[in-house]
Amino acid sequence: SLTAAYAAAVVALLRLVLKKRAPRQVLCLLWLVVFARLLIPVSLESPLSIVPDALPQREPVQAESTAPPVLQTAPVQAPGPVQIQPAAQPGGANPVPVTQGGPALTTPEGAASAVPPPEAPVPFPWPTVLAGVWLAGALAMGGWGLASYLRLRRRLFDAIRAPDGAWEHPSVASPFILGVFRPKIYLPAGLVGQPRKFILCHERAHLRRRDHIIKPVCWIALALHWFNPAVWAAFILMSRDIEAACDEAVIRRLGPKVK
User: Model-level pTM?
Assistant: First the structure.
């Protein structure tokens, strides 16, 4: 999303420079690059790029391994020689003391048992909360778009087809195309004359350019990146450039006198 924001800013600057020097079709293709970047999670690396590095790479730093601290204990001193009196020898001989010089290890009295350290507090799950907010926003936008489409389809169920192939309905205030696989052109009822001719030519230019497929796909990218203001600006500017490109197609088809 951050890379696409950089790309959208570059295309917006090119739009200002090329607005009167290049056809709008070129700008529409540039916007498609931006939205393709939003939908494709794989980055294609190149030695030349207009996008700065978002996170500069750093050399890994190896932590110095430290030996565990050695417990310093007081030396255990062996007690003095232990004299053992053997049993009396027969014949009344004096017993000879036997000395045993082995050290005797004893546990110091009053040694306290090891106390476990207190547990660290559990951090707040920010990644989980942010992921939930993003998912809720994406589902809300997707649900709103689907509900709007179904509501419009239900409202136009009794539209009448005209001889020129367009569909008319009294509730239609502005011409548009509805449908992806079987698109239909809807016009306001009672539209006749030259305005109808120009509008039909404009809407058929949308169909030739596959705009009825491109815009829903770009809407999906907008729903996934709803948190990015640059994506909203890119979608609005792309929509304007698409309409201007269709106007240019009408002028090329009918001649410059119809401007």
Answer: 0.69
